[in-house]
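Each record in this resource describes a single protein on a pair of labelled lines. With that in mind, the following record should read easily:

===
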Amino acid sequence: MAPSTQAVSAAFFSTGLISLAPNVVLFLFPSYSADTRLPFLSLGQAVAAGGLLGDVFLHTLPHASNTDQAGLWILLGFTLFFAVDLLIRSLETRSGRQHGHDHNRKETGAATSIHASESPSKSLVVLNMTADALHNFTDGLAIGASYAAISKFDNLSFLSMLTSRGGLASISILLHEVPHELGDYCTLLRAGYSKAQAIRAQFLTAIAAILGTAVALFAVNEETHSDGLLFVTAGGFLYMAASTILPEVLHDNGNASFRTAQLLAFVTGVGLLYLVALLEMTGIITGMLDIIMSALTTYITSCK
């Protein structure tokens, strides 16, 4: 059974909102030079690592309907990201070796080793974009499936759709998406992106959320079960946090106060996801959604 027009409209509206809102927040941040290694970026990466791990252990695993094979899928995702990282670093090394041959054959080995050890930014960017796109795709699946399931029972209006389970899922995803986007932003800046380039990259990965919504709405007859993909993405998050982001954070020089700030930033990233989990469990998000939609309905009615 095809979803109703109202369900399709509400699903894509919600997906567009969660894709646009976090990126709009990024415009409020000041512009930093891509070559400047500021404490802000290091702390931002620590927040990103905490947010990624918090998403895995506080959001993905608790919300999964089938955890029997979770460990296997997570290890698969971790291994896939490790393989991609190895491939990209190998290509970077080959490129560095060729660059050394063109300029000075005698210094090839030294140039290659330095290039490989000090320029991991390309692999970091690719892994970050891949993980973000996969994550956005699964978010789109969750939103699309929620609205598609609702449309099977009642022919609800657009506003009623937004106050349904689909709207609740969208608000929850938006809340945990904001810290993700902020962390990704800092990671891309550290990799050499300008502010504008980083924001454009975030918008590109948002396309995956729209695709996920479309797949859940039109290509699936029953409510989407995407635990396998969720766990693979979780494995990618684990690899990103533990193998690429945290090593860069540890590599930054700093005194005891700065190290303490890094730890607090990491805990903040975890805490943000924990707060979202608490809001979901206590039903506060449902209450917030009811208040927002009630005010919106009243406003629209008064304008007629």
